[in-house]
Amino acid sequence: MTPDQQPTADSLRSQLEALRLSASERLAAAADADGVEALRSALLGRSGELTVVLRGLGGVDAAERPKIGQLANAVREELEAAISARLEVLRGSELEARLANETIDMTAPGREVRIGHLHPTMSVERDLREFFHAFGFEVFEGPEIETEAMNFEALNMPPDHPARDLWDTLYVAEPGSVDAGEPRPAEDGTILRTHTSPVQIRAMHALRPPIRVITPGRCFRYEAVDASHNFEFFQVEGLVVDHATSLADLKGMLEEFARAFYGEGTRTRFRPGYYPFTEPSAAFDISCLVCGGSGCAACGRSGWMTILGAGMVHPAVLRAGGIDPDEYQGYAFGMGLDRITLLRHAIPDLRLLMGADLRFLSQFPAGR
Ligand code: PHE
User: Fold this and answer.
1) Is 150 exposed, middle or buried (0-12, 13-18, 19+ CB in 10 A)?
2) Which of 234, 277, 281 to mutate to test the pocket of ligand 1 (most atoms within 8 A of CB)?
3) Which residue among 101, 132, 164 closes a domain?
4) Residue 173 lies in a domain
5) Percentage with pLDDT > 70 across the chain
6) Domain of 180: which CATH number?
7) What pLDDT, in 10s, does the model give residues 75-131?
8) Whose CA is nearest to atom 8 of ligand 1?
9) What is the CB < 6 Å shell around ligand 1?
10) Is 186 in the same domain as 273?
């Protein structure tokens, strides 16, 4: 048909007929579902072949138009049905082809599920939590970034107190001072806590006596790193505040702890010690885990190993915690988790624990 030729009803009829015939051949030739979809839009789409034929409808005798329209609808329905049927066949055979070609090896071994475990230091921490929980201690945690006021002043160490030298402190720099090339400690006294003892003060502020808490956590000191020192380590602090708490209670508690953690046969001793926040203060020793007390390199020939510091909470510390020392007494102790972990597994170098080498860490899957 050329544009100047007016289509007649007959010519439209034969065009529709031709479309129907060619469509079913082309449909049969379509190799896959995508081909059929492309054919659908070529035939029935908005500017598809059927639409193009029907553009001639306007020139046809008015009496003939409805008949041609009916025929066109019939062709459209027929084509749509044929397209759906063809799609169904093709999709079915595509599935069949996949089923035929893909194989599943039912005998292949399952994929291994790798289950991790706690870091040995954290597993010691869990054991400590469990042990002290049985004696009525709850866990109370404090911030790793502290103030000098909490880390020192509240613990009976005023700014010029010489005992501050016992803790080599990492200071947070005053904002801007590093960029200015003159780093100096923050004016608000922000530091990294050097021990978990400031959590004693926080616990006293947050809780009312009777208080029984342990406060596990990470601490920081300005230390050169070697086999037994690091700038980052873990402590567990214990604090008890009650009416008539005594040194005997502290000794009983720690002896219980030493036997539970290091074995029934472990011997213990208290030595006088010094901490500004406890009075009296003590170092708590256990018989050497390596030689049993006869003296070896691990215990410096003394037969003893110091595992924690302890004492009766100083009245000034109780007061800083808002507690009346005439009414209440308390005891406190603090121990390093890293050392306990090294001893438990006979690990010779602290740096092994701090590294992230799974070949090493995976040798210590559970507890003891
Ligand atoms: N805070 C002390 C330290 O880090 C340990 C300690 C805690 C001593 C509680 C006495 C009482 O060395």
Assistant:
1) buried
2) 277
3) 101
4) yes
5) 98
6) 3.30.930.10
7) 999 999 999 999 898 888 888 888 888 988 889 898 888 888 899 999 999 999 999
8) 309
9) 195, 197, 237, 275, 278, 309-311, 332-334
10) yes
Q: Kindly state whether residues 199 and 345 are assigned to the same domain.
A: yes
Percent of the chain past pLDDT 90, that is, above it, reads 56
Residue 166 is inside which H or E element, if any? Answer: none
Rounded to 5°, angle at Cα 300 from 294 and 302: 45
Report the alpha-carbon distance of residue 237 to residue 215 in Å, rounded. 5
End-to-end alpha carbon distance in the chain: 94
223 & 340 share domain: yes
Q: Are residues 51 and 140 in the same domain?
A: no
- Whole-model pTM over 0.90: no
Q: How many residues does the chain have?
A: 368
Which residue, judged by its Cα, is nearest atom 5 of ligand 1? 334
Give 30-58 pLDDT, tens digit per residue. Answer: 888 889 999 999 999 888 898 888 888 88
Q: Which domain holds residue 48?
A: 9-101
Q: Tell me the CA–centroid distance for residue 330 and ligand 1, in Å.
A: 14
